Every structure is written in structure tokens, then in C-alpha cells.
From TrEMBL:
<feature type="binding site">
    <location>
        <position position="55"/>
    </location>
    <ligand>
        <name>Zn(2+)</name>
    </ligand>
</feature>
<dbReference type="GO" id="GO:0006633">
    <property type="term" value="P:fatty acid biosynthetic process"/>
</dbReference>
<feature type="binding site">
    <location>
        <position position="52"/>
    </location>
    <ligand>
        <name>Zn(2+)</name>
    </ligand>
</feature>
<feature type="binding site">
    <location>
        <position position="36"/>
    </location>
    <ligand>
        <name>Zn(2+)</name>
    </ligand>
</feature>
<dbReference type="InterPro" id="IPR011762">
    <property type="entry name" value="COA_CT_N"/>
</dbReference>
<dbReference type="GO" id="GO:0003989">
    <property type="term" value="F:acetyl-CoA carboxylase activity"/>
</dbReference>
<dbReference type="GO" id="GO:0008270">
    <property type="term" value="F:zinc ion binding"/>
</dbReference>
<dbReference type="InterPro" id="IPR041010">
    <property type="entry name" value="Znf-ACC"/>
</dbReference>
<feature type="zinc finger region" description="C4-type">
    <location>
        <begin position="33"/>
        <end position="55"/>
    </location>
</feature>
<dbReference type="Pfam" id="PF01039">
    <property type="entry name" value="Carboxyl_trans"/>
</dbReference>
<keyword id="KW-0808">Transferase</keyword>
<keyword id="KW-0862">Zinc</keyword>
<keyword id="KW-0963">Cytoplasm</keyword>
<feature type="binding site">
    <location>
        <position position="33"/>
    </location>
    <ligand>
        <name>Zn(2+)</name>
    </ligand>
</feature>
<dbReference type="Pfam" id="PF17848">
    <property type="entry name" value="Zn_ribbon_ACC"/>
</dbReference>
<keyword id="KW-0444">Lipid biosynthesis</keyword>
<keyword id="KW-0547">Nucleotide-binding</keyword>
Length: 289
């Protein structure tokens, strides 16, 4: 028989099945896309600035990663790295939770601030980190952002804040709510000094952060697919007794409704920020500042 001349060779059968082989893949080598399920190599993922090349899903960045992909290499100088929060309400488990977040993230609180350059243009940045108690805004986040804005005024440079937050930190009660007014006041002084403020909203930006500095940029930019909102969907639906559309509170939806200026893929973000900073710098020259 002709087909006997080409016997099927069981090439794989000679290799003993090794169920533990998968476990031997070094941790962090691959990651599964949370949106489309594709398996992605970490190296490839890094090249794509942690976005999925198949579906465009944006993975969460830590504050350290955000600084690394945004600022010019070696330009970052951190402010107030050791500012830590008290426990003004003696809220149950709060101190322990802060300590656990500190251990897990290596951060003192949910925001990192400092100065650096983007495309050679000096800037002051604030970068929130969702790993630290959901990026909630307590007195340390408020104080660090306020001091950073004041530094920007002193140095006469623009401010960029990358938001990711579950909102105000309830464990600090009114002390966290008053940060909204404090940061907003500092931003008003920045505007009086005719300095640019760019707000970059990332997934998710909600609550008191959306209700204050995240929406107060001269330019408000969001990453694709980010959830942006104030109150949660269920609360709004119960209050207004209406069903909300599925895409409600996505970056694309709030763009369409005029709340933000642009939705930008992370791969294009650094270049856009550099362009905005360069336009602002030129504006400064023209106005004789
Ligand atoms: Zn994907």
C-alpha cells in the first residue's frame, strides 16, 4: 500500500509527558491578557508599554513603571519619599493595612511625586499607584501633590498628574475629603502662574479624585478603556431610577460627552506629552515669560 511508505511517525510520543514543565517557566516570563486571553511574553509586553498587541488592553502600571516609560532616563528626582500617613480616626485595621501596602509596593503611600524631563522639557509629575489601598487619596496623597504643585510654581515648570484611584480614603474621613480642596487651590495658583497642568486619567479614576484634580487639567487625557466616573453605576441607577448604557463611565463615553479632551493609546502618550510641553514652552517665550 502506498500509504505504508509514509507511515505516520508519532514524533511527540517519544517525549515523556511532563506535567510539571509548565511550572518550570520562570515567574513573570509570560502573562495572560485579561481581555482577550492571549498569552503574551513579558518582553513583548514591555515593548508594547504593557498593552496587548492583539486587543489593545492596557495593563495596570505601577508608579515606578509609569515613571520609567514616561520620563527621560535618569531624569527623575523624587520629592517627599518618606511622607507617611497617621491614623487620625484610629480606624480599625488602618495602620496595619497601610503597613501591608508599604511592604507590598515599596511605596510610602499611593502617590509618587518628583521632577524630571520628558523629551528634554522639565516637568513636575505626580503618579498614583492602585496597588496602595486602591490608590485612595488620603492626607499623604493630598499633601504630596500639593507640595509637588508648589514646587512646580517655584521652578516655573508644568505639572502632569497620572491618576488611578478608588477615590477618597474613607479610613481618614474628612481629612481625605479636604485634600480635594487643598489640591484644587494649589492648581488654581499654578494657573495664576500661567503654568500648564496636564491630567492623565488611567483605569480606574473615580470618586473624589475625579471630582477634583483629575478633571481640572488644562488638558485632560485618558488611556483607552479606562473607567472614569464619580459614583458607582449601581448608586446612580438607583438614584435616577434609569438604566445606564453599557459603555457608561468608559474613557470613550466621557470623551464623547465632553468631560475629557482625548483618549490616547499608551504607546503614543509620551510623544503627545512632549509635544504639549514643547507648545507650552514656546507659548512661554512668546508671552515674554
Ligand atoms: Zn488582549
Amino acid at each position: 500500500m502506498l500509504k505504508d511508505l509514509f507511515p505516520k511517525k508519532k514524533r511527540y510520543a517519544t517525549v515523556a509527558p511532563n506535567p510539571s514543565a509548565r511550572d518550570k517557566v520562570p515567574e513573570g516570563l509570560m502573562e495572560k491578557c485579561k481581555q482577550c486571553g492571549q498569552i503574551l511574553f513579558a518582553k513583548e509586553l514591555d515593548k508594547q508599554v504593557k498593552t496587548c498587541p492583539h486587543c489593545g488592553y492596557h495593563f495596570t502600571l505601577t508608579a515606578q513603571e509609569r515613571i520609567q516609560v514616561t520620563l527621560d532616563e535618569g531624569s527623575f528626582e523624587e520629592f517627599d519619599a518618606n511622607l507617611v500617613s497617621g491614623d487620625p480616626l484610629h480606624f480599625p485595621d488602618y495602620s496595619a493595612r497601610v503597613e501591608r501596602s508599604r511592604q507590598a509596593t515599596g511605596l510610602a503611600d499611593a502617590v509618587v511625586t518628583g521632577a524630571g524631563t520628558i523629551g528634554g522639557f522639565p516637568v513636575v509629575v505626580g503618579v498614583m499607584d492602585s496597588r496602595f489601598i486602591m490608590g485612595s487619596m488620603g492626607s499623604v496623597v493630598g499633601e504630596k501633590l500639593t507640595r509637588a504643585i508648589e514646587q512646580a510654581i517655584e521652578r516655573s515648570v508644568p505639572v502632569i498628574i497620572f491618576s488611578v484611584s478608588g477615590g477618597a480614603r474613607m479610613q481618614e474621613g474628612i481629612f481625605s475629603l479636604m485634600q480635594m480642596a487643598k489640591i484644587s487651590t494649589a492648581l488654581a495658583r499654578l494657573a495664576q502662574s500661567r503654568l500648564l497642568y496636564i491630567s492623565v486619567l488611567t483605569h480606574p479614576t473615580t470618586g473624589g479624585v475625579t471630582a477634583s484634580f483629575a478633571m481640572q487639567g488644562d488638558v485632560n487625557i485618558s488611556e483607552p478603556g479606562a473607567t472614569i466616573g464619580f459614583a458607582g453605576r449601581r448608586i446612580i441607577e438607583q438614584t435616577i431610577r434609569q438604566k445606564l448604557p453599557d459603555e457608561f463611565q468608559t474613557a470613550e463615553f466621557v470623551l464623547e460627552h465632553g468631560m475629557i479632551d482625548q483618549v490616547v493609546h499608551r504607546k503614543d502618550l509620551r510623544a503627545l506629552l512632549a509635544t504639549l510641553l514643547s507648545l507650552h514652552a514656546k507659548g512661554g517665550e512668546w508671552s515674554g515669560r
